[in-house]
Amino acid sequence: MSTRQHLRPIPLLLCLACPVAEEPEPTPEPPSLDELGPLTATLHHVLPEREVDPGADELTCVSWTLDNEAPLYVRSIRQDNGGGFHHGNWFVVSDEVYPGPDGYWDCGERDFEEISAAMAGTILFAQSTQARTEQQRFAEGAVVKIPPRSRVVADVHLLNTSPRPLTTRLWLELELVHPGLVDAVLSPVLLSYLDLHIPGDTRSRHTGRCQTAPEPEDGEGPRLPPWPPMALHYVLPHFHGFGDHFDLRVIGGEHDGVSVYGVEGFDAEALGHALDPPLSIEDAEGLAFTCGYDNWLPQELQWGLGEGEMCLALVLADADSVVIGGVREGTELVDVQDGVRMLEGPCEWVRIPKGLAHTMPASYELELPLYVPPKAEPSEAPSPPSCVDVDPTADLVAPATLASIREHLFEPSCVFSSCHGQSRAGSLDLLAVDLHTELIEHAMQREVSRPLVAPGDPEGSYLLEVLSRCEPEGGGPMPANGIALSDAEVVAIVREWIEIGAPENG
Question: Helix (H, G, I), strand (E, B), or coil: what is residue 456?
Answer without folding.
Answer: coil
